[in-house]
Amino acid sequence: MKHTLSYVMVTPHTLVKSRTGGVLSRLLSRTELELVGAQLFAPDDAFSREYANSLRLRAPQNQLVLLADYMEEKVAPGGGRPHRTLLLLFKGEKPCEQLLHACGHIYPQNVEVDVMLGETIRDTYADMVFYKDDPEKIYYFEPAVLTPRQQSEADGDLRMLANFLEGKENIVRNITYKDPSKIEQSLVIIKPDNWNSGSVKPGSIMDMFSRTGLRLVGTKIFRFSLNHAMEFYGSVEANLVERLAPDYGRKAREILERELELPLDDESEKILSESIGRKFATNEFHKIVEFMSGRRPDSCPPGDEDKPSDVKCMIILYEGENAIQKIRDVLGPTDPLKAPIGTVRREFGSSIMVNTAHASDSMESSIREQDIVKINENSLVSIIKDYLSG
Predict the structure, then answer these.
(1) Which among 139, 195, 214, 377 has most CB atoms closer than 10 A?
(2) Distances in Å between the alpha carbon of 18 and those of 21, 87, 187, 221, 304?
(3) Radius of gyration of the chain from Cα atoms?
């Protein structure tokens, strides 16, 4: 069956309440779809009206009118500024059907709390409160997410979204800080080992980072090329050589002395460090590059160095006071076995290399890393356009 695209729009309220990770976990674990794009954006009045009107035209007498009104009243700019909204783009068989099943329906009438099962995203995160003296009149409504019911609706919405997002910056700048000099940005990468089919890990990691209280201001799905990975981790190779080469030179000396029964001097150990030790450290660096880009530097076919890999990451940009340290405290040290309980790497990492996530260690690193992954660019629009023109 043909694979098509659909989407889930995570509302500003869900983002502010730091429920995004829980939503993502449900979508990844309760569907057989691939997350192929993610973008944070701030709808303006014109887009909100256009989207709302498209909902009203689909079914003027049912629940979609609630969503249309919500779009104009809560997603559109308010309080003097636009609101952050997250678009998640999924690919697979019957994506509308699968996403609607995971998101859940909107209840058309007041439902007792004990009847709710908590199976869907809306069961857990949405609210519909009625007036006590008028059970037909809604006092408060929060849908948590928006998603189309049919593929024809999805295709129309995706065209609308692509037109609006074309040329938009990938970072949402919708607030002014009292003291901008105190504000930092930390770049986080949810690494390839988290994206196995049906895994809740990416959403759970986002949940853990959300406890920092930092604002999520940008995100994208990114596939490292070999050259991207080489540039991003370039400084790691020298550190590995410095740290590992002497240790493995010493181990090589011990093995040779034991197996050959031949005493070796310090000069021999130094030679072993410069040869075997350095080669081992370089091989470890190549493993890191391969893990992130799917290609080893010493075996990549000529001409493929700049091709995006088959493995993916999610790039997330967090912003706020002391963002660098707050994120790294939640991330934990490089070795998951040495990471404190309750940190991301302790919970989800398995080794020094497969340690589940990366975070900038300084503002200088954050700026450099944002440039390498081209944080201001997002492939989501091009994915939609390629799909619609296919």
Answers:
(1) 214
(2) 7, 15, 18, 20, 39
(3) 25
> What gap in Å lies between CA 90 and CA 301, rounded to an integer?
31
Could you tell me if 286 and 293 are in contact, meaning their C-beta atoms sit under 8 angstroms apart? no
The distance from CA 15 to its chain's CA centroid, rounded to whole angstroms, is: 13
**In CATH, which of 3.30.70.141, 2.40.50.840, 3.30.450.20, 3.40.1160.10 is domain 4-170+379-389?**
3.30.70.141
Domain boundary assignment for the chain: 4-170+379-389, 175-223+312-374, 237-283
Q: Which two tokens stand for residue 266?
A: 């310090």
The secondary structure of 248-260 as a DSSP string is HHHHHHHHHHHHH
Q: Which pLDDT tens digit goes with each residue over 55-104? A: 998 865 567 788 999 999 999 999 889 999 999 999 999 999 999 999 99
Query: How many C-beta atoms lie closer than 10 Å to residue 81's C-beta?
Result: 12
Alpha carbons 54 and 48: distance in angstroms, whole number = 10
The reply to whether CATH 3.30.70.141 applies to domain 175-223+312-374 is yes
Average per-residue pLDDT for the chain: 92
Q: Quick check: is 358 catalytic?
A: yes
pLDDT tens digits, 211-256: 999 999 999 999 999 999 999 998 888 888 888 889 989 999 899 9
Instruction: Give dist(CA 181, CA 322) in Å, integer.
Output: 11
pLDDT at 236: 87
For residues 294 and 222, the answer to whether their CB atoms sit within 8 Å is no
Helix intervals (H) in the chain: 12-16, 20-29, 45-58, 64-70, 95-103, 121-125, 151-165, 201-210, 226-232, 234-260, 266-272, 278-293, 323-331, 344-348, 363-372, 380-389
SS3 57: helix
Close Cβ partners of 283 (under 8 Å, ≥ 6 residues apart): none
**Cβ neighbours for 332, distance < 8 A, ≥ 6 positions apart:** 339, 340, 343, 344, 345, 346, 349
What Å distances lie between residue 241 and 98, 247, 285, 296, CA to CA?
Answer: 48, 10, 9, 17
User: Are domains 4-170+379-389 and 175-223+312-374 of this chain identical in fold?
Assistant: yes
